[in-house]
Amino acid sequence: MIYFLAFFLPPLGLLLNGQPFAAIFSAILWVFCFFAGWFFWPLWLVPSGHAILAIAMKNDARRHRELVDAIEKHGPPPNWRP
Predict the structure, then answer these.
(1) How many CB atoms lie within 10 A of CB 71?
(2) Domain contains 31
């Protein structure tokens, strides 16, 4: 659902994902690409792409942090060798 929102309203999607500075940057990018997109239409996709990548990167970082926390709490998996 957040990716759908990030595609159609990138600043709002980033803001709801907990990334206020990326949302501000995306809003500025959105305005610039809206006006420049009248001359080169693929620029309309840039803010959406930025929002989707930023959300995916934050989700990956969160999953990585959860995995590291679990390993620190419970130790490495069985039969693990360095």
Answers:
(1) 12
(2) yes
Q: Could you give the number of structural domains in the chain?
A: 1
Asked whether the predicted pLDDT for residue 44 surpasses 90, the reply is no
Q: Provide the b/e sequence for 41-67 (b: ≥16 CB within 10 Å).
A: eebeebbbebbbebbeeeeeeeeeeee
Which structural domain, as residue segments, surrounds residue 25?
Answer: 2-74
Residue 48 domain-assigned (yes or no): yes
pTM over 0.85: no
In a domain, 80, yes or no: no
pLDDT at 57: 96
The candidate with the shortest Cα–Cα distance to 13, out of 72, 55, 75, is: 55
